[in-house]
Amino acid sequence: MNERFDELRINLRAVQEKIEKAASAAGREPDEITLIAVTKFFPLSDVRALYDLGIRNFGENRDEEGAQKAGELASDALWHFQGQIQGRKIPSLLEWADYIHSLDSLDHATKCERRLAEMGESRAFFIQINLEPERTDRGGITLSQLPEFISAVRELRHLQVSGLMTVPPVDADPARSFAQIAAAADLVGVEGLSMGMSGDFEAAICAGATHIRVGSSILGSRPTPA
Questions:
Q1: Could you give the angle at the alpha carbon of 177 between the alpha carbons of 171 and 178, nearest 5°?
Q2: If pLDDT is split at 50, 70 and 90, which confidence band does 129 have?
Q3: Which of 29, 81, 116, 118 has its CA 20 to 30 A from that of 98?
Q4: How far apart are CA 196 and CA 97, in angstroms?
Q5: Residue 1's pLDDT is what?
Q6: Which pTM does this prediction carry?
């Protein structure tokens, strides 16, 4: 195997060991947690190497890049879209993404419902929660908007609400942020919690994360996008 493959193998194993330790500390089983390898901006060769190492869940933030990579990998790979949804790209997005982690607009939800109905399919969605409502550059709805929003989305037949997603504020205690999201999920009756990245996924696991999105801890520093 080449040097890059060995690097990915070592990094992946280190992350898996941390997942196992965090799960044990929280009284959970490691298989309760889905590890999503965030491969945005990394080459297809890295994605293929991770597939060969047993990874089946991959995260992408751009529709074009995700579509290209998904088309090159085996059909048992699962693709998670984590970027902000753009209405004009919804038809393309729904062609390759198995899970969408960033639903925060009823307009987008309605457009997804219409397209999925045409396709005769359904998709799993996480509702993105914004814990920094003063930041207009960050997607997501506020916790106060969640009950009404999720009630409306549940009326759409082809959208499956899998859970909630968040990114903690940079200057906040991530454990506290994750606890807020877990409590909100309990209130609205969803089990999925997409939270935790390279720097804080252990705290997220302790708070009940079901999906963690890990990039740099596995793949290293992200290359400059083309």
A1: 135
A2: very high
A3: 29
A4: 20
A5: 55
A6: 0.96
**DSSP per-residue string spanning 86-150:** -GGGHHHHHHH-SEEEEE--HHHHHHHHHHHHHHT--EEEEEEE-S-TT-TTS--B-GGGHHHHH
Return the domain boundaries, the chain: 3-219
Joined tokens for residue 65: 């890049």
Listed residue (64, 96, 95) closest to 79, CA to CA: 96
Task: Give the CATH number of domain 3-219.
Answer: 3.20.20.10
Tell me the pLDDT tens digit for each residue of 19-53. 999 999 999 999 999 999 999 999 999 999 999 99
Tokens 């080459």 correspond to what residue?
43
- Cβ pair 163, 191 in contact under 8 A: yes
187-212: average pLDDT: 98
